[in-house]
């Protein structure tokens, strides 16, 4: 899919203040620093559409971007970041869950996980929650440019196998690198099919 136009629309703390749910929407979630904002920029061929940082906890609001005047991409804050105060984490958690539970135009949630690390409890719990709430999601393994060539895909396969016990049907997954543009076509094609 060709991205002809990508523009920032609005940032919100509250789900009910988000733009009217009249267009298909795709949101990006995952632990802080996993690369959500960088991936949105990569998909949109932009360096600074979404704000990124090497310090975890950069994205703190629900950010809507309008793509080709016909669908939304949404950048969300990270979950499970230990250095954020407990009260703040609970606030983020509630904001995210309110958003996910009420956005009737959410076509798919992309849950990002770092391709270099073992399955994390916070990610597995979050996936379980999404299953219970019947929110459709896919996985995206990020930062594959940082993987050593040998054995890299085995790591991802092992990750998927570990989900087997929990899920009757495994979620679809993509591999990505915001640095190298890996996965861009596949993810955009997936979105185009649903749109
Ligand atoms: P929060 O908003 O804090 O939750 O983080 P985020 O998930 O939006 O991560 P962000 O996109 O800000 O990226 C975090 C750090 O990872 C930055 O230093 C990025 O440059 C780096 N990064 C993101 N994606 C990639 C990637 O594909 N490859 C490499 N090498 N670095 C990446
Ligand atoms: Mg971010």
Automatic annotation (TrEMBL):
Record InterPro entries: G_ENGB_dom, GTP-bd, GTP-bd_ribosome_bio_YsxC, P-loop_NTPase
Domain EngB-type G per the UniProt entry, residue ranges: 22-195
Keywords for the protein's UniProt record, in alphabetical order: Cell cycle, Cell division, GTP-binding, Magnesium, Metal-binding, Nucleotide-binding, Septation
Signal sequence, renumbered to the chain: none
Gene3D superfamilies with a match to the protein in the record: P-loop containing nucleotide triphosphate hydrolases
BP GO annotations: division septum assembly
Superkingdom of origin: Bacteria
Any Pfam family matching the protein: MMR_HSR1
Molecular-function annotations in GO: GTP binding; metal ion binding
Family statement: Belongs to the TRAFAC class TrmE-Era-EngA-EngB-Septin-like GTPase superfamily. EngB GTPase family.
Protein name: Probable GTP-binding protein EngB
């Amino acid at each position: 899919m060709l991205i002809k136009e990508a523009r920032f629309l609005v940032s919100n703390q509250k789900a009910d203040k988000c733009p009217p749910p009249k267009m298909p929407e795709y949101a990006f979630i995952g632990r802080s620093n996993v690369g959500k904002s960088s991936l949105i920029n990569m998909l949109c061929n932009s360096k600074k559409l979404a704000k990124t940082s090497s310090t975890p906890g950069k994205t703190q609001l629900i950010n809507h971007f309008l793509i080709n005047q016909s669908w939304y991409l949404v950048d969300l804050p990270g979950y499970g970041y230990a250095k954020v105060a407990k009260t703040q984490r609970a606030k983020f958690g509630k904001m995210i869950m309110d958003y996910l539970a009420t956005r009737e135009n959410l076509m798919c949630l992309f849950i990002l996980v770092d391709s270099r690390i073992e399955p994390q409890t916070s990610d597995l719990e979050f996936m379980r929650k999404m299953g219970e709430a019947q929110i459709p999601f896919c996985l995206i393994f990020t930062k594959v440019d940082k993987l050593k060539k040998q054995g890299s895909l085995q790591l991802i396969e092992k990750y998927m196998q570990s989900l087997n016990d929990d899920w009757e049907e495994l979620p679809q997954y993509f591999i990505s690198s915001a640095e190298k543009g890996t996965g861009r076509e596949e993810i955009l094609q997936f979105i185009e099919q649903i749109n």
